[in-house]
Write a structure and sequence with these properties.
There is one protein chain. The protein has two domains: 136 residues, no CATH class; 210 residues, no CATH class. It contains ten helices and 21 strands. The strands form three sheets. The chain has a 17-stranded antiparallel β-sheet, with helices on both faces. It has a two-stranded antiparallel ribbon with strand order 6-7. A two-stranded antiparallel sheet has the order 13-14. Strand 20 and strand 21 form a beta hairpin. The longest helix has 19 residues.
Length: 423
């Protein structure tokens, strides 16, 4: 019985193709780096991306990708397990025939792209993940660089590459303290100013402008109208900083502790003095007065009374402490200095806990700390968004978890930055 030439050549051709493919080929080997705007792996376990609703994937789908066809057109690419027998690792289908031309003429596959290689999990990674390189993402976010999103049972990781030397963030030198029993918000950061700039760079113009405006209003309400968030506060956050915020259970007013460093800068030291004085001026010194003239005319009004403020100076170890107390309301503003370090607060008990922290204490673990850690009380965060950013965040819950707090860490490994969120 004769054997056709085709019967011999087809298996040989298939063998050649398999030899030319990387060992254990992956979908990124078949996608053009310059046209791929998204790649989703283990897609049936990811449900946060509206674009996936346009693709009819199943539980056996290996991956889904989206290609930029130009002029605003996007094509979906579906990777399914190859039918047996097959010489190729995947069965590939597209939603637009124009995508076939891109897939047939790949000069630089996504798998060899430096950003993808830095961020993407290894081939043996079996959990779902997504590579995203899209200029806009919904109504809130814009991505100025590729990112990789990896969900987990308790939250997600979002990884990106550092754009310049300033984003090679240093790790924290101290483990974050806990100063309030029930904090609303904690941020402990090696460079809060740079971290804030990084996070706001992922917001579209409108939400970024609104967010900055709301924060500016809140900061002025806390530190006084004479303090500039941009020129006074942000420069103080260029070094390791801890900010703790809570609600006074008695008055429901916000309390805070700010711990930081002036780094031997006389200008920043003067800024701390100016903020302290601004907060002191915000303490109410108005007293109601009543005067009678000619034994018949009664004048009632208000007048400033500096005697309502009690000023004290003291020492605690290496800390030099200044405090101002409003004698009627018992409101206090406290400032402590030790070398280049400072603690500023309006919460006496938490301030005392901060003073007791031994900054030279050796940590239990030698593992490097994150560049930033923090948490936010879930219900208060959602209430804040509802009150101050209703048009931007209406109906958006803070995460999918049910715990009291949302926690995060910002980690750096070489040029790779990872925001790890526990929902």
């Amino acid at each position: 019985m004769g054997v056709s030439i085709a019967a011999i050549l087809l298996p040989l051709a298939g063998a050649v193709v398999m030899l030319l493919l990387p060992s254990r080929a992956m979908p990124a080997d078949f996608l053009p780096a310059d046209r791929t705007i998204a790649l989703f792996s283990q897609i049936h376990e990811i449900d946060r991306f509206p674009m996936l609703k346009t693709v009819p994937f199943t539980n056996t789908t290996v991956a889904v990708a989206f290609l930029d066809l130009g002029s605003g057109a996007i094509a979906g690419v579906l990777f399914e397990p190859a039918p047996f027998p097959s010489t190729l690792p995947f069965a590939i289908s597209v939603s637009d025939p124009r995508a076939n031309m891109l897939l047939r003429n790949i000069q630089h596959p996504l798998s060899r792209d430096p950003s993808f290689r830095l961020l993407a999990p290894s081939k043996n990674f079996m959990r779902p993940w997504a590579y995203l390189h899209v200029p806009t993402f919904g109504t809130l976010f814009s991505l100025d660089r590729p990112v990789v999103y990896v969900p987990s049972k308790t939250g997600f990781d979002l990884s990106m590459g550092a754009k310049d030397a300033r984003e090679y963030f240093s790790p924290l030198e101290m483990s974050p303290p806990r100063l309030f029993e029930s904090p609303l918000f904690i941020l402990h950061s090696s460079d809060a100013a740079a971290h804030f700039s990084l996070m706001t760079s992922f917001l579209n113009d409108e939400p970024s402008t609104v967010m900055e405006s709301v924060l500016r209003t809140l900061l002025k309400a806390t530190f006084g109208p004479d303090v500039s968030p941009a020129y006074d506060l942000l420069p103080l956050l260029e070094y390791e900083t801890a900010l703790h915020v809570a609600e006074d259970p008695r008055t429901h007013a916000l309390q805070f502790v700010l711990i930081g460093s002036t780094a031997q800068s006389t200008e920043k030291s003067a800024t701390i003095d100016r903020i302290f004085q601004s907060m002191t001026r915000e303490l109410r010194t108005i007293r109601h007065v009543s005067r009678t003239f000619d034994d018949k005319y009664v004048f009632r009004g208000v007048a400033a009374d500096e005697s309502l403020l009690s000023r004290q100076s003291s020492l605690s170890g290496t800390w030099k402490i200044e405090s101002v107390t409003q004698t009627e309301t018992k409101q206090r503003v406290l400032l402590a200095r030790s070398g280049n370090h400072f603690i500023l607060s309006n919460a006496p008990d938490a301030f005392a806990r901060a003073l007791a922290i031994n900054t030279s204490e050796v940590r239990d673990s030698l593992e490097p700390l994150p560049a930033s850690v923090g948490l936010m009380e879930r219900s208060s965060g959602e209430q804040f968004l509802k009150e101050h950013l209703p048009t931007l965040f209406a109906g958006h819950p803070l995460g999918t978890g049910t715990g009291k707090y949302i926690q995060w860490q910002l980690l750096r490994s070489g040029a790779k930055l990872t925001l790890r969120v526990k929902e």
